[in-house]
Records
---
Amino acid sequence: MDDSAKKPRRELEGLLACAPAAMRVSERHEFDRLSAGRDIVLMGAGGLGQMLYMSLSLFQQSQAMTIILAMLMLVALVDAASAWLRQRLAQ
């Protein structure tokens, strides 16, 4: 075999030798991404959301409505505070 026929084979062998390391990096990146998503979900799963879930599961409509109203009030409050802060920073 001449040298030109061996070159692609050597390059392929080099790529195959790097494949396990590339897979480990890829798996680690995927694990980190999923862990970050899990942390966000776990933080958002508590508090009012858990209370609402329990109220709806137990068919306690009046308590569920109170929790929904509290959520809407919190969203409106944060939205108003955010608008005020943006206006103050824009000046």
---
Amino acid sequence: MAARRFDLVILGTHFAESSMFDVLESVIGQSHCPVVCLQAVPFSHGLGKSSFEAFRSASMALGASLVLNLVELADDAQVRALLEAQIPGLVTRA
């Protein structure tokens, strides 16, 4: 990442062989762009509201600019509206 400039990095919660938190720390350490962490696919064991809030808090503490739970949204139109409302403000602040 250090060799290229990015306007925004989006990280999902699902990683086969690693932790999103490890990737987040690495991205924050190598880049000065905003990072959005999101849950877009439900966990197989479910991630309750309190667990997601803990995930949000940990992500923000590690340097994420925004944490979104797209699973709570009813359809693609709601996801698109949320992303269009949130992302431009992050990119223009970078």
---
Amino acid sequence: MKLLIGSIAVFLLANLIAAYREAFRHPKNYALVDPARIFRFGMSDGGGFAPLVADGAPIKGYVVDAGWIKTWYEQMLEIERRRLALAGHRARLSPASRT
């Protein structure tokens, strides 16, 4: 089950980045946009995705507000642990972590 959930998460993340990259290609089609002066702005998850979206395209710079300080996996673990604690589940150590 873990492998399936991990595979789905990777699939969803890859598709999300692909969609952002597709959207990033469009502004340069407008005469009022100078491709040499494009900055990317990202807040929260957008701050984490912003550098991934350019995909090698020239970009002037990035402005990030409250971007990632953890990996996506660490963030998901923290959310799941918080969800379980709020639902009344106690944390248990696995046998491997007790040594």
